[in-house]
Amino acid sequence: MNTATNTIEEKALTLGEQFRQAREAQQLSIEDVSKKISLRPSILQLIETNQFAQKSIPATFMRGYVRSYAKFLKLPESVWVHASFGEDHKNDLGKNARATRAVNNYSSHNHWIGWLSLLVVVIVAGMTGLWWWENYTQSNAERESLVQNYVETTPQNTLVPNTTLMPSSSTSHTQSANEIAPPTLTPVEPSVSATAVPVTITPLNEAPITSAEVLKAEMNKLDEKNVNPLVSTETASSTTDELHIEVTGGCWISVQNDSGKVLAQKEYKQGDVLTFNEGVTYSLIIGAPANVKITYKGEDYPLKVDGRVARFKLPQ
């Protein structure tokens, strides 16, 4: 009768109470068991109070703790094997895939940032090159307009055409010839006396032309003919240079050889003379073509007098 009662009492005991009674039967405290099987006292306390399912402890770990505690207390496996330890945590097989996908998204984001940075660098470089080209063309335009502005702003009375200077030059030579030549012209007297002086009827309010005036006019013509050889001699002496530039008025002149060397480049005044014997091709820029007289290899070089800048090369 007593044996049946003990069996019923054992069946009435819970799993945790069985662990506690087995421990107390061996006269061991929870701390003693914790030191011998290396389990925390809090876990042993959970086992003895039937708290096998814990969110913070996986079911697999709790089952191992119970096995170790039962083996230490020499309890059979049949006592605790049917206990509920909660749901086992399943392995998340998609975790690695999600991590790989996140890494790929991060890499693609960095790749996109790299291409965007390269595009920004290309745009900045292009804008820098465009800015440099605009400044270069603007400086060239300003350099070209410098001569044009000089021509436009120069007073017209200073731009004396070449044709108006030659008669004055010949007149000065004539006056000097008159001063040098003797006052009497014996060879001329027969031609003058043989020339028939026309008789003209002049109005009453005008003075009649006398023979003395006619004689003086003939003498001036002869003097001009005598002076011409002197002028041609001076011109011939000036044309010995390969390139001869005579400045008859204020102008801007630039002369360069075929290698780009600047031979002359500044503003020249009336009376200046430039000569070159480089034996190369000359590149000329004349700011006021009407104010210069150019002789190349003994021949006069005609210039177009239209108020613009003259650009040409010799020989052409």
Key traits:
single chain; 316 residues; alpha+beta; 4-stranded antiparallel beta sheet; 10 helices; rod-shaped; Cro/C1-type_HTH; RodZ-like_C; membrane
Question: Strands, helices and their partners?
Answer:
Layout (H helix, E strand, L loop, with lengths): L1 H11 L2 H11 L4 H8 L3 H8 L10 H15 L3 H4 L13 H60 L8 H19 L7 H7 L16 H28 L4 E5 L3 E6 L5 E7 L4 E4 L5 E5 L5 E5 L2 E3 L8 E5 L2
Antiparallel strand pairs: 1-4, 1-6, 2-3, 2-5, 5-8, 6-7
Helix pairs in contact: 8-10
Structure description:
It is built from ten helices and eight strands. The protein is of the alpha+beta class and 316 residues long. Strands 4-1-6-7 form a four-stranded antiparallel sheet, with no helix packed on it. A four-stranded antiparallel sheet has the order 3-2-5-8, covered by helices on one side. The chain is rod-shaped, with a radius of gyration of 62 Å.
Which strand-content bin applies to the residues?
Answer: 5-15%
Major beta-sheet overview: 4 strands, antiparallel
Gyration radius (Cα, Å) is 62 Å
**Contiguous runs where pLDDT drops below 50 for at least 5 residues:** 157-206, 226-237
- Principal-axes shape call: rod-shaped
Termini separation comes to: 146 Å
Number of strands: 8
Main sheet: strand order = 4-1-6-7
Transmembrane segments: 112-133
InterPro entries: Bact_Cytoskel_RodZ, Cro/C1-type_HTH, Lambda_DNA-bd_dom_sf, RodZ-like_C
Pfam family, one: RodZ_C
Protein name: Helix-turn-helix domain-containing protein
